[in-house]
Write a structure and sequence with these properties.
By secondary structure, this protein is an alpha+beta fold. Helix content is 25%, strand content 27%. Strands 3, 4, 5, 6, 7, 8, 9, 10, 11, 12, 13 and 14 form a 12-stranded mixed beta sheet that branches. The protein has a 4-stranded antiparallel beta sheet with strand order 15-16-17-18, with no helix packed on it. A two-stranded antiparallel ribbon has the order 1-2. Helix 4 runs parallel beside helix 8 and helix 6 crosses helix 8. InterPro entries: aa-tRNA-synth_II/BPL/LPL, Biotin_CoA_COase_ligase, BPL_C, BPL_LPL_catalytic.
Length: 410
């Protein structure tokens, strides 16, 4: 009920539904209640926004945060020293490395007084003075157990997108150095199909560089990288002792889900073949601690604690980025040795599609059961009484499981 009071008086809203209530704070609710309320979060916030707007209040988003300088961080001092030596040889006199997307200007000390633009970003190489409210580098190092991947971090509090930060380095830097770009916030986060968004604090945002020989098992099946990356995120949580029942799952081809209900994150892969080597950038973003307006991993942990009377600790983005990179390196190694069959049992353990149906071709197309993915990473389905076939997305749908097409040669 909306009730204005005369011409110059105030206005009041009487609302029977408590649209503002945090789902976590409700007592006496079931798991089903939690799911229904979380799924409806966005709608409830939209209604609340309309109500407040009717009262004359501004519900516009806060100002977009300003870009910040980058920091070059290495997990080992020897790696950092050798990288600085390489930079001394491979940057120009002003410390610049330029690519088609942006220029990085490497400076020894605090770059906070330098102008930061989308096309020119200062990179502070001194590690001793680094600190961040939202990224604990010691926590990252404690959870990173890799031979190569993720050992050198290009970190930003706020950047346009991590997908561009490594562009000028990946083809030049020594092969033994494993680069990853990590940000607290992105103002132009990038997804499949060119979708962009502003990423809030609380998400784990990164772009990892890997190299894959063309002649290798994975080099012959590059689409599998997105499956391995999304699987690595799920396993990074569910492999922690006590966290194995946190209902985090993978959705083909590159999404991270709570159960089969709500999306928590996704993966974007760009690959370039140079000579006999693929240079691959794996962009990954998943919600760790931002509860609204959707859901985050820590919501699932707290809900598990309530349902099972446990006391699992909430997790942080720095921890989970490091753990997911560690898992991914192990998955890649297994795939290179054993091929798809080396990783598919774990993938199927966590995927949301078991026993599910999809519609082929269009809304009027036949229904088919999802049965798995083929050796190239594409979805396999089976119509009633017919053979198993591989299907491809039509390239036009936001949901990759809509309007699946059966290739003509089949």
């Amino acid at each position: 009920v909306h009730l204005p009071y005369e011409e110059n008086g105030g206005e009041a809203i009487l609302c029977q539904a408590h649209l503002e209530v945090n789902v976590q704070n409700l007592s006496g609710r079931s798991s089903d209640d939690f799911n229904l309320l979380k799924i409806s979060n966005a709608k409830r916030y939209n209604v609340l926004t309309k109500i407040l707007t009717q009262l004359g209040l501004s519900c516009e988003l806060n100002d977009v945060p300003h870009l910040t300088p980058l920091h070059l961080l290495s997990s080992e001092k020897e790696i950092h020293c050798s990288l600085l030596e390489w930079l001394g040889i491979n940057t120009d006199r002003s410390g610049l490395i330029t690519s088609s997307k942006l220029s990085l200007k490497f400076v020894a000390s605090d770059g906070s007084q330098m102008e930061v633009t989308p096309s020119l970003m200062p990179v502070v190489t001194e590690m001793d003075t680094f600190s961040s409210e939202h990224f604990n580098f010691d926590m990252y190092k404690q959870n990173l157990h890799t031979n190569k991947l993720g050992k050198v971090v290009l970190f930003a509090e706020v950047t346009s997108t991590t997908m561009d930060l490594l562009d000028g380095l990946i083809y030049k830097i020594p092969r033994e150095i494993g680069l990853i770009a990590i940000a607290v916030q992105q103002i132009h986060g990038r997804g499949r199909g060119g979708n962009t968004w502003l990423s809030p604090v609380g998400a784990a945002l990164s772009t990892l560089h890997i190299t894959i020989p063309l002649s290798s098992q994975l080099g012959q099946r590059i689409p599998f990288i997105q499956h391995l990356a999304s699987l690595a995120v799920v396993e990074s949580v569910r492999s922690i002792p006590g966290y194995q029942d946190i209902d985090l799952r993978v959705k083909w081809p590159n999404d991270i889900y709570y159960c089969d209900l709500m999306k928590l994150g996704g993966v974007l892969v760009n690959s370039t073949l140079t000579g006999d080597t693929f240079h691959v950038l794996i962009g990954c973003g998943f919600n760790v601690s931002n509860s609204n307006p959707t859901i985050c991993i820590n919501d699932l942990i707290m809900e598990h604690n309530k349902a099972k009377n446990t006391n699992l600790k909430t997790l942080s983005a720095d921890c989970l980025i490091a753990r997911s990179v560690t898992v991914l390196e192990n998955l890649i190694s297994t795939f290179q040795e054993k091929g798809p069959n080396g990783v598919l049992p774990m993938y199927y353990k966590y995927w949301v599609h078991s026993g599910k149906q999809v519609q082929l071709g269009s809304n009027k197309g036949p229904m088919a059961w999802i049965v798995g993915i083929d050796d190239s990473g594409f979805l396999q389905v089976q119509e009633e009484g017919k053979d198993v076939v591989t299907v491809h997305p039509d390239g036009n749908s936001f949901d990759m499981l809509r309007n699946l097409l059966v290739p003509k040669h089949q």
